Amino acid sequence: MPFFSILTLFPEALEPYLRASIVGSARERGLARIELIDFRDFARDRHRTVDDRPFGGGPGMVLRPEPIVECVEWLERRHGEFRKIMLCPTGRPFTQGTAESLTAEERILLLCGRYEGFDQRIAELFEWEAISLGEFVLSGGELPALAVTEAVVRLLDGALGNERSAVEDSFGSGRAAGETRDGATGERAEPPPPIFDHPHYTRPRSYRGRAVPEVLLSGDHAAIARWRRKRAHERGEHLRESEGK
Ligand SMILES: C[S@@+](CC[C@H](N)C(=O)[O-])C[C@H]1O[C@@H](n2cnc3c(N)ncnc32)[C@H](O)[C@@H]1O
Questions:
Q1: Which of 105, 111, 117, 166 has the most CB atoms less than 10 A away?
Q2: 45's torsion region: left (phi>0), alpha (psi -120 to 50) or beta?
């Protein structure tokens, strides 16, 4: 069971989301453990200060090194080493591949910044992976931390009602969490090329003149699978064309 430790100045903003829906239910059923830590508790002064003005001048405040460094050290003394992720707009873009790799981790630490970001010594004193949610700037790392947590938790065995839901999602390797071998032959399965999910339809059969494709009503599972593969592939082609690739 992965243990997520999320270091934030706003645990109260995260807790309600982490209690709801798939993630909340996974926590209740013991599939994932998620702990929120307010690193202000590691501040040294009576005002519980965690930020300060930047040396060299400039706008905004910078997160001081001591509370965060001492919080990480305290956590690792208690639990052992974590895979440490620093949420950063300039980090490596978060992908489904990263989410899949995180399902195999025992301990994951997600560090949420605020203000102008972190004192550089925090980055240098530990081995971090800097992860970005995309090329835009939020006011804090809390939404990225929730996105990473949810993307990982929904891949865990038993987290979704139907296991194939996550396996067949867009961008996935097509394998369930921890699944590395071909079920039929026992051979190591090569991950299929990245593919988008196919379009989905439900009731009503016709809506505003648009009918559900006949093949989906045919009961012919092989034909349905072929249609879905084709449409998923076309979606990928369409995106590559629109990106000029
Ligand atoms: C206002 S931002 C700091 C921006 C920083 N001065 C810069 O321009 O790169 C405060 C914090 O929000 C988080 N954050 C903002 N945008 C993010 C993104 N796209 N991905 C991940 N984290 C982000 C980071 O933790 C960051 O330290």
A1: 111
A2: beta
Query: Is residue 179 situated within a structural domain?
Result: no
Q: How many domains does the chain have?
A: 2
Where does a domain end: 97, 130, 153? 153
CA-CA-CA-CA dihedral for 218, 223, 227, 228, to nearest 10 = 90
**Atom of ligand 1 at shortest distance to CA of 131?**
21
| pLDDT tens, residue by residue, 58-70 | 999 999 999 999 9
Q: Which of 83, 89, 179, 231 is catalytic?
A: 89
Cα separation of 118 and 101, whole Å? 26
Q: Rounded to two decimals, what is the model's pTM?
A: 0.89
Q: Which of 86, 138, 139, 142 to mutate to test the pocket of ligand 1 (most atoms within 8 A of CB)?
A: 138
Q: Residue 73 maps to which CATH number? A: 3.40.1280.10
Please report the beta strands in the chain, taking only residues with DSSP state E, as ranges in sequence order.
3-8, 33-38, 51-52, 62-63, 83-93, 107-111, 129-132, 206-207, 210-211
Question: Which one of 153, 187, 222 terminates a domain?
Answer: 153
Span from the CA of 218 to the centroid of ligand 1 (angstroms): 50
Structural domain boundaries, residue 80: 3-153
For residue 30, is it within any domain?
Answer: yes
Q: Does 139 have pLDDT greater than 50?
A: yes
Structure-block tokens of residue 131: 């992860």
